[in-house]
Amino acid sequence: MPDWKTLKRRVYGEDGSLLNVYVLGTSRTDWDRWITFVNARYPLRWEAQGLNENAPAPAIDAAFINRRWDAASEQLTVLAAVCLGTVKLHCLFYSETEIEQDLDPREIRTPADHEQVLAYLVDLSILLGKEVILTDENSEQAVWFRVNGKRVTFIDR
Prior knowledge:
This protein is α+β, with helices and mostly antiparallel strands.
Protein backbone atom coordinates (compact mmCIF):
# COMPACT_ATOMS: atom_id res chain seq x y z
CA MET A 1 0.00 0.00 0.00
CA PRO A 2 1.39 3.41 -0.90
CA ASP A 3 1.97 6.03 1.77
CA TRP A 4 -0.68 8.66 2.52
CA LYS A 5 0.92 11.43 0.43
CA THR A 6 0.98 9.17 -2.62
CA LEU A 7 -2.63 8.07 -2.08
CA LYS A 8 -3.79 11.66 -1.62
CA ARG A 9 -2.06 12.79 -4.80
CA ARG A 10 -2.96 9.83 -7.03
CA VAL A 11 -6.30 8.49 -5.78
CA TYR A 12 -7.86 11.31 -3.79
CA GLY A 13 -6.93 14.20 -6.07
CA GLU A 14 -8.80 17.46 -6.12
CA ASP A 15 -9.51 17.79 -9.84
CA GLY A 16 -13.29 17.87 -9.38
CA SER A 17 -13.98 14.32 -10.54
CA LEU A 18 -15.62 11.74 -8.30
CA LEU A 19 -14.67 8.19 -7.39
CA ASN A 20 -17.08 5.27 -7.74
CA VAL A 21 -17.65 2.24 -5.56
CA TYR A 22 -19.03 -0.73 -7.49
CA VAL A 23 -20.37 -4.12 -6.52
CA LEU A 24 -21.17 -5.94 -9.75
CA GLY A 25 -23.54 -8.83 -10.29
CA THR A 26 -25.91 -7.92 -7.49
CA SER A 27 -29.46 -9.05 -6.80
CA ARG A 28 -32.32 -7.60 -4.81
CA THR A 29 -31.20 -9.78 -1.93
CA ASP A 30 -27.81 -8.04 -2.03
CA TRP A 31 -29.52 -4.66 -2.12
CA ASP A 32 -31.75 -5.60 0.82
CA ARG A 33 -28.70 -6.70 2.81
CA TRP A 34 -26.86 -3.45 1.97
CA ILE A 35 -29.89 -1.33 2.92
CA THR A 36 -30.29 -3.14 6.25
CA PHE A 37 -26.54 -2.72 6.88
CA VAL A 38 -26.34 1.04 6.19
CA ASN A 39 -29.65 1.78 7.91
CA ALA A 40 -28.30 0.12 11.07
CA ARG A 41 -24.72 1.40 11.03
CA TYR A 42 -24.48 4.83 9.45
CA PRO A 43 -26.20 8.19 9.60
CA LEU A 44 -27.85 8.81 6.24
CA ARG A 45 -30.30 10.93 4.29
CA TRP A 46 -32.69 9.25 1.89
CA GLU A 47 -34.82 11.08 -0.66
CA ALA A 48 -37.22 9.57 -3.19
CA GLN A 49 -39.17 11.38 -5.85
CA GLY A 50 -42.84 10.84 -5.22
CA LEU A 51 -42.39 9.88 -1.58
CA ASN A 52 -40.40 12.22 0.64
CA GLU A 53 -38.88 14.92 -1.55
CA ASN A 54 -39.46 17.70 0.97
CA ALA A 55 -38.45 15.75 4.07
CA PRO A 56 -35.48 13.38 3.63
CA ALA A 57 -35.71 10.26 5.76
CA PRO A 58 -32.99 8.90 8.09
CA ALA A 59 -33.40 5.37 6.67
CA ILE A 60 -33.81 3.80 3.22
CA ASP A 61 -37.15 2.16 2.42
CA ALA A 62 -36.23 -1.04 0.55
CA ALA A 63 -39.86 -1.88 -0.23
CA PHE A 64 -40.29 1.47 -2.02
CA ILE A 65 -37.20 0.86 -4.15
CA ASN A 66 -38.35 -2.66 -5.01
CA ARG A 67 -41.77 -1.33 -6.04
CA ARG A 68 -40.11 1.23 -8.32
CA TRP A 69 -37.90 -1.45 -9.88
CA ASP A 70 -40.98 -3.68 -10.34
CA ALA A 71 -42.72 -0.81 -12.12
CA ALA A 72 -39.70 -0.61 -14.45
CA SER A 73 -39.39 3.12 -13.94
CA GLU A 74 -36.83 4.30 -16.45
CA GLN A 75 -35.43 6.90 -14.12
CA LEU A 76 -35.50 5.98 -10.47
CA THR A 77 -34.97 9.36 -8.80
CA VAL A 78 -33.80 8.19 -5.42
CA LEU A 79 -30.72 9.34 -3.52
CA ALA A 80 -29.13 8.03 -0.36
CA ALA A 81 -26.23 9.90 1.21
CA VAL A 82 -24.43 7.57 3.62
CA CYS A 83 -22.09 9.33 6.06
CA LEU A 84 -18.77 7.70 6.88
CA GLY A 85 -17.69 10.41 9.28
CA THR A 86 -17.02 13.45 7.09
CA VAL A 87 -17.03 11.39 3.88
CA LYS A 88 -20.38 10.98 2.13
CA LEU A 89 -21.17 8.11 -0.22
CA HIS A 90 -24.02 8.80 -2.63
CA CYS A 91 -26.11 5.95 -3.97
CA LEU A 92 -28.64 6.51 -6.76
CA PHE A 93 -30.19 3.02 -7.14
CA TYR A 94 -29.70 2.93 -10.92
CA SER A 95 -29.91 -0.83 -11.35
CA GLU A 96 -30.63 -3.84 -9.22
CA THR A 97 -27.74 -5.68 -10.94
CA GLU A 98 -25.03 -3.43 -9.52
CA ILE A 99 -24.54 -1.30 -6.47
CA GLU A 100 -22.92 1.94 -7.56
CA GLN A 101 -21.98 4.73 -5.20
CA ASP A 102 -19.89 7.83 -5.64
CA LEU A 103 -17.77 9.87 -3.31
CA ASP A 104 -15.95 13.16 -3.58
CA PRO A 105 -12.23 12.52 -3.07
CA ARG A 106 -11.80 16.05 -1.69
CA GLU A 107 -13.67 14.83 1.42
CA ILE A 108 -10.85 12.36 2.13
CA ARG A 109 -8.47 14.72 3.88
CA THR A 110 -6.63 12.46 6.33
CA PRO A 111 -5.29 8.92 6.62
CA ALA A 112 -8.16 8.27 9.06
CA ASP A 113 -10.71 9.24 6.37
CA HIS A 114 -8.99 6.83 3.95
CA GLU A 115 -9.06 4.04 6.54
CA GLN A 116 -12.75 4.68 7.20
CA VAL A 117 -13.54 4.30 3.48
CA LEU A 118 -11.47 1.11 3.24
CA ALA A 119 -13.19 -0.31 6.34
CA TYR A 120 -16.57 0.33 4.71
CA LEU A 121 -15.43 -1.41 1.50
CA VAL A 122 -14.18 -4.42 3.48
CA ASP A 123 -17.42 -4.61 5.47
CA LEU A 124 -19.44 -4.38 2.25
CA SER A 125 -17.42 -7.13 0.58
CA ILE A 126 -17.78 -9.43 3.60
CA LEU A 127 -21.51 -8.66 3.92
CA LEU A 128 -22.26 -9.51 0.28
CA GLY A 129 -19.54 -12.08 -0.34
CA LYS A 130 -18.56 -10.16 -3.47
CA GLU A 131 -15.67 -8.10 -4.76
CA VAL A 132 -15.96 -4.35 -4.22
CA ILE A 133 -13.95 -1.96 -6.38
CA LEU A 134 -13.07 1.71 -6.03
CA THR A 135 -12.59 3.34 -9.42
CA ASP A 136 -12.28 6.60 -11.25
CA GLU A 137 -15.63 8.21 -12.01
CA ASN A 138 -17.86 6.15 -14.33
CA SER A 139 -15.10 3.70 -15.18
CA GLU A 140 -15.33 0.14 -13.92
CA GLN A 141 -11.99 -0.53 -15.63
CA ALA A 142 -9.98 2.28 -13.98
CA VAL A 143 -9.66 0.48 -10.64
CA TRP A 144 -7.71 1.86 -7.67
CA PHE A 145 -8.68 -0.73 -5.05
CA ARG A 146 -10.05 -4.27 -5.24
CA VAL A 147 -11.55 -5.56 -2.01
CA ASN A 148 -12.30 -9.24 -1.53
CA GLY A 149 -13.32 -9.92 2.04
CA LYS A 150 -10.50 -8.65 4.24
CA ARG A 151 -8.02 -8.59 1.35
CA VAL A 152 -7.50 -5.07 0.00
CA THR A 153 -5.37 -4.69 -3.13
CA PHE A 154 -4.13 -1.34 -4.39
CA ILE A 155 -3.84 -1.25 -8.18
CA ASP A 156 -0.72 0.73 -9.08
CA ARG A 157 -1.50 2.27 -12.44
